[in-house]
Amino acid sequence: MDRTLFSPAMIETFRVCRRAYWFAFQQGQERAEKTSTVLKRFLLKAVAEINRGKIASRSQVQKFLGTHWPSEAVSGQDGGKAFLFGYKVLENFLSRPYRPKGAQLVGVNLKVRARVAHIRVYLEDTIDAIFWYPEEKRLELVDYHLHRLKPFDPTWPQASILVKQFLAEKLQTRWPYEKLSLTFCQIGAGDIKPTTIDLDEALYRLHWPDLIKTIEEMKAPEHFAPHQSSICTRCDYLAQCTAMGHSVCEGSSNAYRARISRTA
Questions:
Q1: What does the pLDDT look like over 86-131, one tens digit per residue?
Q2: Coil vs helix vs strand at 252
C-alpha cells in the first residue's frame, strides 16, 4: 500500500515498531476504541468550542454534554465515570482557560496540511490552539493533553514536534513570526499545567533529514517483522491478539493506536 499522507502518530508508531504501525494504520477498517481515546476526542472538541466562545457558561457546558456525549461508544460504569470527569474538566477549563498574557487567540482546532518537497507526500496535523504575540512577533502552538507529560529531551525532538515546526512554515504568511514556541497544556479537574519550549531552527534542520528518511520507508513498506530484541511489548501485544483471533485484534486496534502513539 503506497501512502501519500502521514500524521505524527503514524510516524512515531512506525519508528517504534513497524508491525504495530501496520496493525494500527494500514488495515483501513473502523474498529472499537477504548474509553480514554473517545473521551479525549470529545474533550478536545468541547475545549475548541470554549475557545471559540460558543460555550461560555455552565449551563452551556451541560447542554453540550447532553447533546454531544458519545453514549454509544462510552457506556456502563466506565462511561459514567468518564462523563463525570469530562464535566469537571470542561467546567474547570471554562473558569480558568489557558490565556497567556499579551497573546491573541488566532486559531482553534486548526488542521494544517503541507506538501513535503521532492518526495511527493503530505504531512498533516491538527493544532489545538494558536496564539500570536504581536509585540514579540512570536507564534505559540498549543497541544492539549489529559495525562502528565513524560520527560523528554528538547535537543532530540520527537516526530510530532518536527512536523508541527514544518507545518508552522505554512502559517508564517498569516502571522510573520520570528520566534516559534510549542506548549503542551495538561487540562484536567485541577490546575492547568502548561509546559512551553522554544522551537529551535538549527535543531529542526539537524533532525529533519532523519524524519524524511523515515517517511521514505513508510511510503511503501514491505516488511513488518517484529523487533530483533527479545523484549518488545508492542509485538507481544500483537502476538496475543493473533492467538485470540483477528476479531479481537481488530476490536482492539484503535485502543492500541492511542496507547502506542503516547509511548512512542
A1: 999 999 999 999 999 999 999 999 999 999 988 889 999 999 999 9
A2: helix
Sequence letter at residue 3: R
CA atoms within 13 A on the CB side of 190: 4
* The pairing of beta strand 138-145 with beta strand 179-186: parallel
Selection from 118, 94, 123 nearest residue 4 by Cα: 123
β-pairing, 193-198 vs 5-6, is unpaired
Q: Using DSSP, state whether 100 is helix, strand or coil.
A: coil
Contacting residues for 108 by C-beta, under 8 A, at least 6 apart: 48, 51, 52, 128, 129, 130
Distance, in Å, from the CA atom of 263 to the CA atom of 246, rounded to the nearest integer, reads: 24
Amino acid letter for position 25: F
The pTM of the full predicted model, rounded to 2 decimals, is 0.83
The answer to whether 264 and 13 are in contact (CB under 8 A) is yes
The helix or strand, by DSSP H or E, that contains position 183, with its residue range, turns out to be strand 179-186
Complete DSSP assignment for 121-175: EEEEEEEEEEEEETTTTEEEEEEEESSPPPP--TTS--HHHHHHHHHHHHHTTTS
The answer for residues whose C-beta is within 8 angstroms of residue 54's C-beta and 6 or more apart is 60
Contact of 185 with 145, CB cutoff 8 Å: yes
Smallest Cα–Cα separation from 121: which of 69, 166, 79?
166
How many helices (H) and strands (E) in the chain?
9, 6
| Residue closest to 235 by CA, chosen among 215, 256, 250 | 256
Q: What share of the chain is helix, strand, coil (3-state, %, to 5)?
A: 50, 20, 35
